[in-house]
Amino acid sequence: MSTKTWLLCKCSHCGEGIEFTSNMAGDVINCPSCNQTTKLPGEARWTFAGKLFGFSFLALALSVGAWMGARSPAERLGNAGFALFWLVVAAVLFISAMIERNRG
Ligand SMILES: [Zn+2]
């Protein structure tokens, strides 16, 4: 038994509402109203971009946490490498998320 999520979008030609299941997201189908081909919104891709955004903020939080959480300048210096690493990870994930979102 599989659980299907029903989604609703509008046909890009006639503007009629089209109901489709989440596993059809991103597919090209024939509109039931005007019978022209229309692309269903890529829900799966959005979710992936959303995850990337989530992870980028998590990495940023780790970076800021390591930097701000230090109780002495020496400890802060010791954490600098760790903070910088996660800052770079956050930046890469954020850029990937933007690319992934724009592609859909
Ligand atoms: Zn249509």
Name a few traits of the molecule.
two-stranded antiparallel ribbon, 104 residues, alpha+beta, binds zinc ion, single chain
Q: Describe it for me?
A:
This protein is of the alpha+beta class and 104 residues long. It folds into two domains: 6-39, no CATH class; 48-103. Helices cover 55% and strands 15% of the residues. It has two helices and four strands. It has helices spanning 43-68, 73-103; strands at 6-10, 17-21, 28-30, 37-39. The strands form two sheets. It has a two-stranded antiparallel sheet with strand order 1-2. The protein has a two-stranded antiparallel ribbon with strand order 3-4. A hairpin with a 6-residue loop joins β3 (28-30) and β4 (37-39). The relative contact order is 0.14. The structure holds zinc ion (ZN). Zinc ion is lined by residues 11, 13-14, 16, 31, 33-34, 36.
Quick structural summary:
With 104 residues, the chain is an alpha+beta fold. It contains two helices and four strands; from the N terminus they run ββββαα. Helices cover 55% and strands 15% of the residues.
- N to C succession of SSEs: EEEEHH
Helix content: 40-55%
Total helical segments: 2
Give the cofactors and ligands.
zinc ion
Q: How many beta-strand segments?
A: 4
Which strand-content bin applies to the residues?
15-25%
Radius of gyration, CA atoms, in whole angstroms? 21 Å
What general outline do the C-alpha atoms trace? rod-shaped
How many structural domains are formed by the residues? 2
Unreliable residue runs? none
* Structural class based on helices, strands and sheet pairing: alpha+beta
Q: What's the overall average pLDDT, rounded?
A: 88
- Major sheet strand order: 1-2
Taking the alpha carbons of the first and last residues, their distance comes to 29 Å
Main β-sheet description:
2 strands, antiparallel
